[in-house]
Specification:
2 copies of one chain form a homodimer.
Chain A: E1 6-14, H1 18-31, H2 45-50, E2 53-61, E3 64-72, H3 80-88, E4 97-103, H4 106-109, H5 118-126, E5 133-138, H6 145-157, E6 162-165, H7 177-195, E7 200-202, H8 212-221, E8 227-229, H9 231-234, H10 236-244, E9 252-254, E10 269-270, H11 272-282, E11 287-291, H12 301-310, E12 322-326, H13 334-341, E13 346-348, H14 351-355, H15 360-375
Parallel strand pairs in A: 4-10, 5-6, 5-13, 6-7, 8-9, 9-11, 11-12
Antiparallel strand pairs in A: 1-3, 1-4, 2-3
Helix pairs in contact in A: 6-7, 6-15, 11-12
InterPro entries (chains A, B): RuBisCO, RuBisCO_lsu_C, RuBisCO_lsu_C_sf, RuBisCO_lsu_N_sf
Domain Ribulose bisphosphate carboxylase large subunit C-terminal (chains A, B): 122-356
Protein name (chains A, B): 2,3-diketo-5-methylthiopentyl-1-phosphate enolase
Chain lengths: 380, 380
Amino acid sequence: MISGERFSVIYRLISADEQEARQKAWAICLEQTVEFPEELVPAGMIRDDIVGRIEALAPISAGVYQAVISYAVETTANEFTQLLNVVFGNISIKPGIRVERLALPQSLLSQYCGPRFGREGLRELLGVSGRPLLFTALKPMGLSPAQLADMAYKCAMGGIDIIKDDHGLTNQVFAPFRERVTACVAAVEKANARTGRQTIYVPNITAPANEVVARAKLAKTLGAKGVMLSPAITGLAVMKFLADDAEFGLPVISHPAFQGSYVTAHDNGISHFALFGQITRLAGADIVIYPNFGGRFSFSREECQDIARGTCVNMGQIKPIFPSPGGGMSLDRIGELMAVYGNEVIFLVGGGLFKHGPDLEENCRYFLDMVSNFSNTGDN
Amino acid sequence: MISGERFSVIYRLISADEQEARQKAWAICLEQTVEFPEELVPAGMIRDDIVGRIEALAPISAGVYQAVISYAVETTANEFTQLLNVVFGNISIKPGIRVERLALPQSLLSQYCGPRFGREGLRELLGVSGRPLLFTALKPMGLSPAQLADMAYKCAMGGIDIIKDDHGLTNQVFAPFRERVTACVAAVEKANARTGRQTIYVPNITAPANEVVARAKLAKTLGAKGVMLSPAITGLAVMKFLADDAEFGLPVISHPAFQGSYVTAHDNGISHFALFGQITRLAGADIVIYPNFGGRFSFSREECQDIARGTCVNMGQIKPIFPSPGGGMSLDRIGELMAVYGNEVIFLVGGGLFKHGPDLEENCRYFLDMVSNFSNTGDN
């Protein structure tokens, strides 16, 4: 029943000394598997293989330790949901434990499809190489489908590659889903016919459990070329289900709404690298949106760089995905940000695109020019 | 388009002074609705009604403020998922903001079914009144269906009211779902036939997105009388979907795995009261499991009392549910815990039940006697 294949999780532990750290690591080994008092754990397979194993433990700074704990792949039952549970189920409730990184063997990775498009597939879909991709959001809530579509048209004419709904647009009376998607798809197609570009419109499909997949399929039927959802609201597994569905087959974008509590406390939760990088890739997103450093949120430059690293760290056949920093981005920072992220990034500029000047289409052109100039490809 | 009906969220803000607190509150009003620079928010309905409103702001201690912010009910589109997004979507990423409490008007509450059974319905189903209910978990992972069923039989013979899977048992090769449920249902039915009790077996249905509902229905077909899931893993909305399904119609139990990060940091996240009480009730759970104070987790007695309050605070037609403290409970604490929780509680004792003595059935009887004696009803 036990193959001997194990995966590892690297945890960061807050502990006064090595003895306490070792106790904490051992408590994790029990808690995440048998959840049973140590003295009662049956001998044999359960004690030898199912209980987690401390593979390494080392101090990394005063009062901070790193533990590498391995688990039998069979504990996850080939289920993404149960993988999340083994990695961080009950211990999410214990302070002073943070998931830093997953180390998954090929035998486990091969159970996952990962993102369908990834970086290369998205570039092909959009027909853009050699520069960062441009991304914006339609808002504010309260506008009509016609007003949002007008905005989408201008953004597409101005050269934005991906135009999404604001993540707060679901099915409000102001702009019901079907009407909004129909109008925005038509607007972007009209612009594409003029520009020759392959700009895509991506509606937000975050919705109640019985409606997410239906909205995704409706969006596709109406001509949308991708979907966005907030996996902490719908469930990460719902995102994975959509991404895995070959018949659906559109790019999937992950939005961080309701997900922040996993990363806002330095000593608890999940690292930016693991959550927005590794776990989001396992869950099949092609693009991961997160708040950029220096905007109106509080991620540091280092945390954002960790996310970018997590989006492309080797995970077997699981493709690299695009990091998409947003959240208070302004156009005058493009040069600085390209120095940090390079070309393999999608800049999500929302409000900043509107603030730049009175003509939205002109603002988009300026955004594209900036990015094209800094990437020195001449390709715009 | 705007009814004038608004709901409120009470936030706890970490701010140096009142001016900073007001700025933070106003930033929430914008972030959670229009997500747009203030100066660009269109006049009229959007600025007047859709943008959140600061209804009150007051200091509660040094550097800590409480803000009451109201939102138009229309922003939620009658969707639980979008309600979560308005309450704590993007601001989950901003440190120093905690959701303390929801204040929902009848017009919004009336959109929600809430728990199907609630406290009264569960007592009726189980045929137990006048004392706390007894709850245990089958474990450890690695046991076979026959071994787990044997354990279930002994627990049911000993008088446990609800016997659940450990939350880590999903569909592992050691005890596949169908075989496990079949065996445990039969064992509990056999015991019930002898004792005359109405003990129920509740399998864990936490599973990938396309399998949760299927497992819930399979469990029912196989004779299970309730289901448990970890909503932070499946998505809270998935739990609500099941609870709302009249044809399914079984009690639903919420497990806190992967949910801890919302509550482990005092200055971020969601309060115990709102998350385990109010939000879990909106999501339809009849029982909410959480780690008790004094066990191997770190919730304080006050936080646990807040949870208990949240499970029964007035929410219109949404029924009160059972708080179910677990996580390192030992039998010798029953008296102390009944002084804290009273009779309207479900004691979840896992490992402690096994540790008490070598005879599991006897241990269960002892547990029941303790609870019955302390509740002074003579009803056991």
